[in-house]
Amino acid sequence: MAAVSLRLGDLVWGKLGRYPPWPGKIVNPPKDLKKPRGKKCFFVKFFGTEDHAWIKVEQLKPYHAHKEEMIKINKGKRFQQAVDAVEEFLRRAKGKDQDLTIPESSTVKGMMAGPMAAFKWQPTASEPVKDADPHFHHFLLSQTEKPAVCYQAITKKLKICEEETGSTSIQAADSTAVNGSITPTDKKIGFLGLGLMGSGIVSNLLKMGHTVTVWNRTAEKCDLFIQEGARLGRTPAEVVSTCDITFACVSDPKAAKDLVLGPSGVLQGIRPGKCYVDMSTVDADTVAELAQVIVSRGGRFLEAPVSGNQQLSNDGMLVILAAGDRGLYEDCSSCFQAMGKTSFFLGEVGNAAKMMLIVNMVQGSFMATIAEGLTLAQVTGQSQQTLLDILNQGQLASIFLDQKCQNILQGNFKPDFYLKYIQKDLRLAIALGDAVNHPTPMAAAANEVYKRAKALDQSDNDMSAVYRAYIH
């Protein structure tokens, strides 16, 4: 974007990294929030989102001069609500000297429920898109009403709560002006695996100022993150050897083992003091095996699978389930704040894997039941949309229910959580039940439906494509 002449109080369109342009206002930053070093930037408060960031001047455009252009590009409902909030602000400000507070109308209080990534930035030929400074700061000045979901990571701090059972949970509390933005660890962070979940995690680590080295089996996936400030590792072993803490997030037990034990794998880079955090959803036996080989080389091990999907990963709102080395868990504090809204420490190695499989077993079974209900409504002559409307007004109402039903009604199965992975998790959860002689008939029934969907070539679609198993 071409440089423009801007000053305090100007309304602007601001662009954050891969996110699309969004209306905001240049305001004074909090006194204790330092400006990033490097190119000239302004502190912008965005309309309708309660989000704030330092934005480089070349990523800003005057609001009025580019309003028609932006409205033509972006047609989303939440985008229109943000524009409406700007216009309401202008009406109130007309003829008066206004302070820097952006009013929030009732129509935009729920805006944070949707991802900005749904919008696309369309630069002109003379204005190539440049990524925002990877060390920009988010800063929540005030939040009187916490939304269900935020469109991207907001600043958080961790608080430790000792429960009556003696186990420990760590939950994220929203940061305020007193706490400032996340203070990134000074440790060098490595990340292996840039799939649906890993990509969002790395993006948020970079945004919150962490030093990150990345590796992916398909090397070109690293390019975007290199542009955002990440370093490139040639092999998993190299990443581990050059970083203090290395995270990994891959698809299944085989991939997790190959990453550690294979040629130029993690184990070859482990030496005393090196830390390895496996965020993959795998079975407890796999985790125990990986922990044993890492620790045998003098390394430290933590399992930390995440509950969520691609959108929540991009938003920095994952739920992290951790077990293993408690000290390493605490060392990962700033990383977990950047990528998630809540972290739980569950004790010894294997506990997080078991809990994660149980969580995904419930989610996968629920998804199959949703698909079953929609198809039953269809074959009995009932409106699927009306069924969704009824469910959304009852006790089952949730973002998950609404999003997955919308996928089905629109025939849009772009993956947010791969169907093949939820089937894998169901299979592992059933095996977990078998190991302790506990029946899992609901999960077993759901698993068969997902297997049918996989036979219909739905593996690489979203889990909601299980619907197709009922209509073919």
From TrEMBL:
SUPFAM superfamilies linked: 6-phosphogluconate dehydrogenase C-terminal domain-like, NAD(P)-binding Rossmann-fold domains, Tudor/PWWP/MBT
PROSITE patterns the record matches: PWWP
SMART domains: PWWP (SM00293)
Keyword Lipid metabolism: no
UniProtKB keywords: Chromosome, Nucleus
Gene Ontology cellular component list: chromosome; nucleus
Pfam families reported for this sequence: NAD_binding_11, NAD_binding_2, PWWP
The PWWP domain, residue ranges: 8-66
Gene Ontology molecular function terms on file: chromatin binding; DNA binding
Subcellular location: Chromosome; Nucleus
The keyword Nucleus is assigned to this record: yes
Domain of life: Eukaryota
Family designation: Belongs to the HIBADH-related family. NP60 subfamily.
Subunit structure as annotated in this protein's UniProt entry: Homotetramere. Interacts with MAPK14. Interacts with KDM1B at nucleosomes; this interaction stimulates H3K4me1 and H3K4me2 demethylation. Binds to mononucleosomes. Interacts with GATA4; the interaction is required for a synergistic activation of GATA4 target genes transcription.
Protein name per the record: Cytokine-like nuclear factor N-PAC
Organism whose genome encodes this protein: Daubentonia madagascariensis
